[in-house]
Write a structure and sequence with these properties.
With about 425 residues, the protein is an alpha/beta fold. It has helices spanning about 65-75, 75-85, 95-105, 115-120, 140-150, 165-180, 195-205, 230-240, 260-275, 290-300, 315-330, 345-355, 375-390; strands at about 15-20, 25, 40-45, 50-55, 125-130, 155-160, 185, 210, 225, 245-250, 280-285, 310-315, 340, 370, 400-405, 405-410.
């Protein structure tokens, strides 16, 4: 399904991205201006100097070959091949000469034959990107930033969207390997048993691998993630400073085992302990599912008047929106009766992609206080790390790159009137 642009949403950059659905398909770069017929620069000799002459012509009007470019430039076929196929062992060619060869290749309409290049020991300069869904404001912008950084470094991307299907993950990984990707990125991909087998085969081929958000436990694979401990701590500190003394943390289903959620809870617990106020309560519950009804079932025991928390901290912003809807059905206002906070700041991504500045134009019930994850910076850093490992031939070495997160205070976290207390506690 092609992407459609609506409203004043800026066009997304998919110039070198391969999208995988049922079959691999190449999306052409519609923004690329290949040199048109007419006059074009060609070199006057091996010194690499360029003058404007008539465009070089292909022989027999067929597909341009390395030999055509060699005859037009005066350089050997081996030199032309080394420049255009970007072999790992690069020929000693000056940057000026390299640019000249590339310009003549474009003017002749040269297109690289990837299959032939592989047979000759060349490179694919392709990367595989595997994620569970594009229908959220975490994976999609992260993948876009990764592709943009990779394209700037001369790489193309295969994108596989698994829709949380373990066998689709396995299928995509096999396809990536069959297309000789030089590196693989996993964005928040949960490791099903069949995926474990497939990824072990990736490592056995010495293909560099990087994960984002979720670590691959017991394997020597680098991880890019936000600083979740820091996120939980700065959020809890702000709530305590605001006066909240009863914090209910609401986990999305089946997430308590995830390191990201555990670290956020650890950070919040640490802030509560540092506050040194014995009356502060920090409760943790988990919803049985993702639906509005599941959130309501989880919250019901805690919405009795004598058991109200002063604030509900949702595991992510979408969960926070569901909490607000449940409170609304009970006739409870946010934040006048119960405050609500989230995590990830998808509001920022929504506003950024729509090119607007005010959350009032969006169907968001109330601007939510949250912790912003720098998803685009995480995507760029993942591309830099993966490509660096490819270029330097580093296939092993597991470590974490944690990127600082940011507290974003909006109107949803004010202390309810009923919760005001004269108690004085340290809020650090």
């Amino acid at each position: 399904m092609p992407f459609r642009r609506t409203g004043n949403q800026p066009a997304m950059n998919y110039r070198a991205c391969f999208f995988l659905n049922h079959e691999l398909a190449f999306t052409h770069n519609l923004n690329e201006n290949w040199m048109a017929a007419g006059s074009s620069p060609t070199p006057s000799g091996k010194d690499g100097t360029v003058q404007t002459t008539t465009r070089p012509q292909r022989k027999n009007g067929g597909r341009a070959t390395l030999k055509d470019i060699a005859e037009a430039t005066g350089w050997s076929v081996n030199t032309i091949s080394a420049v255009l196929n970007e072999r790992r062992t690069k020929a000693r060619v000056s940057e000026k000469t390299r640019q000249t060869i590339q310009e003549v290749a474009r003017s002749l309409g040269y297109r690289r034959n990837t299959a032939a290049s592989l047979l000759a020991g060349g490179r694919t300069r392709t990367l595989g990107v595997l994620l569970d869904t594009l229908a959220n404001n975490f994976g999609a912008p992260l993948a876009e930033a990764f592709e943009s950084e990779a394209a700037a470094k001369g790489y193309q991307c295969f994108l596989g969207c698994t829709r949380f299907d373990g066998f689709r993950k396995l299928d995509y990984i096999e396809r990536f390997l069959s297309h000789n990707v030089e590196g693989l990125l996993l964005i928040g991909v949960w490791l099903d048993p069949e995926v474990e087998v497939a990824l072990n085969s990736v490592l056995s081929t010495n293909t560099p691998l990087v994960t984002v958000d979720l670590p691959w436990a017991d394997h020597d694979v680098p991880l890019i993630c936000g600083n979740h401990y820091m996120g939980g701590k700065i959020l809890a500190r702000h709530l305590l400073k605001t006066g909240h003394r009863d914090i209910l943390y609401l986990c999305p289903p089946d997430t308590l085992h995830l390191s990201s959620i555990r670290e956020r809870i650890r950070g919040m617990s640490s802030a509560v302990e540092e506050q040194a106020c014995p009356e502060t309560v920090f409760r943790i519950i988990e919803t049985p599912g993702k639906s509005l009804e599941d959130v309501e079932v989880a919250l019901n025991p805690h919405l009795l008047r004598e058991n109200w928390p002063s604030v509900i901290a949702a595991g992510h912003d979408l969960h926070a929106f569901r909490v607000i809807e449940v409170l609304k059905t009970r006739g409870l206002r946010v934040p006048e009766d119960i405050a609500v906070v989230g995590y990830d700041d998808i509001q920022h991504e929504l506003l950024w992609s729509l090119g607007v500045e005010s959350s009032q134009v969006l169907p968001i019930p109330i601007p939510i206080t949250t912790v912003r994850q720098p998803v685009r910076e995480m995507g760029r850093e993942a591309a830099r790390l993966l490509i660096d490992r490819i270029e330097k031939g580093q296939q092993s070495g597991g470590y974490q790159v944690m990127i600082d997160v940011e507290l974003v205070v909006r109107s949803s976290c004010s202390l309810p009137e009923w919760a005001h207390s004269p108690a004085q506690c340290l809020t650090g």
